[in-house]
Design brief:
By secondary structure, this protein is of the alpha+beta class. It is built from ten helices and eight strands. The strands form three sheets. A three-stranded antiparallel beta sheet has the order 1-2-3. The chain has a three-stranded mixed beta sheet with strand order 6-7-8, covered by helices on one side. A two-stranded antiparallel sheet has the order 4-5. Helix 2 (about 60-75) packs across helix 5 (about 105-120), helix 5 packs across helix 7 (about 155-165) and helix 9 packs across helix 10.
């Protein structure tokens, strides 16, 4: 159960400025019934260029109603330049805070205000720009970037709380994560190393023979020794030491710390070397 402040409850049960301004100067519409939230904001200016009247109609939850009511209260008496500085956090703060899962309601209010001001100025909605990332709720990459930057968001869940993006089919989660990293200047996490290819028995034997011939025998021969591959039984490599290595007191160390170590490094880490 979400914890609502008394001010949120009051603006939900007794919303201010419900309705529509007659012959409005500015009109902003955001959301849709299909998405579960919709808001229509209208305002009218006085002779001094200040917002004399602001009203709203909304379809949504209690937080959406309270946020829209709070917005109309805040913007009344402001110039457009003052009103366009209102942020979604300002709306939430005016209400004494909103549950994190309902912060998108304050964002919707701020977007409606921006659309209404753009309408008054004869401009297109700033939300027409960008590429849609979340098809379920029609949220663009620019809207997500702005929410991340202005509200210091770090996770997909937080982005969903503020924009609804990612709250539907979840197919956009990877794109949202990438946007978060770009905005926050974080590097792409390194891709997981591919699983090592499983060798067939024939491939394993050939690789062991090749490693013994190229990497191990030349070193042993420098000291008058040698090595011969006798058999490969699963992960057991059976060899015979020759020359000075045969019967040497250090033969066991040579097998374990050199021959076996090199085969594990270059062929497979599970190999063990045994002497006939």
């Amino acid at each position: 159960m979400w914890d609502y402040t008394d001010k949120v409850k009051d603006r939900f049960l007794n919303p201010r400025n419900v309705g529509e301004v007659e012959d409005p100067d500015g009109v902003g519409e955001v959301g849709s019934l299909a998405c579960g939230d919709a808001l229509r904001l209208t305002f009218k200016l006085d002779d001094e260029g200040r917002i004399a009247e602001a009203r709203f109609k909304t379809f949504g939850c209690g937080s959406a109603i309270a946020s829209a009511s709070a917005l109309t209260e805040m913007m009344t008496g402001m110039t457009l330049e003052e009103a366009e500085t209102i942020t979604n956090q300002d709306i939430a703060d005016y209400l004494g805070g909103l549950p994190k899962e309902k912060m998108h309601c304050s964002v919707m209010g701020r977007e409606a205000l921006e659309d209404a001001i753009a309408h008054y100025r004869g401009e297109e909605s700033p939300r027409t720009e960008g590429t849609v990332v979340c098809e379920c709720f029609g949220v663009t990459d620019l809207e997500i970037e702005r929410a991340v930057r202005e509200n210091d968001l770090h996770t997909v869940e937080e982005v969903t709380n503020y924009t609804k993006a990612g709250g539907g089919c979840e197919r956009c989660h990877e794109q949202i994560e990438e946007i978060i990293r770009e905005v926050r200047g974080e590097e792409q996490p390194p891709a997981a190393a591919p699983a090592p290819k499983r060798l067939t028995n024939i491939e394993k034997i050939r690789l062991i023979e090749d490693t013994l011939e190229r990497e191990i025998r030349p070193s042993l021969r420098m000291d008058g020794g040698d090595i011969e591959l006798i058999d490969v039984d699963g992960n057991r490599v059976i060899v015979r030491l020759q020359g000075t290595c045969s019967g040497c007191k250090s033969a066991e160390i040579t097998l374990r710390d050199y021959v076996q170590a090199r085969l594990r490094e270059l062929v497979a880490p599970e190999l063990s070397v045994e002497e006939v």
